User: What shape does this take?
Amino acid sequence: MSEKQVTRRNFLYVTTGAFTAAGAASIAWPFIDQMNPDASVKALASTEIDLRPIVPGQSITVLWRGKPVFIRRRTQEE
Assistant: This one.
């Protein structure tokens, strides 16, 4: 065989392997994705924050589902 045929054959092997891998990934993705929690389950999830170390008048910001939640411990005057 000539060097040109060997190079072409290697290219075809690599291309076939790449398309096979892409096809297998596209078939496997729905099965992997269905293992993620549902949106209704995420909506019921809670985040627990220890409020004891917060002194009166202090504010903290925590993230809940990627969004900031502002917590302020009010003083007696507020």
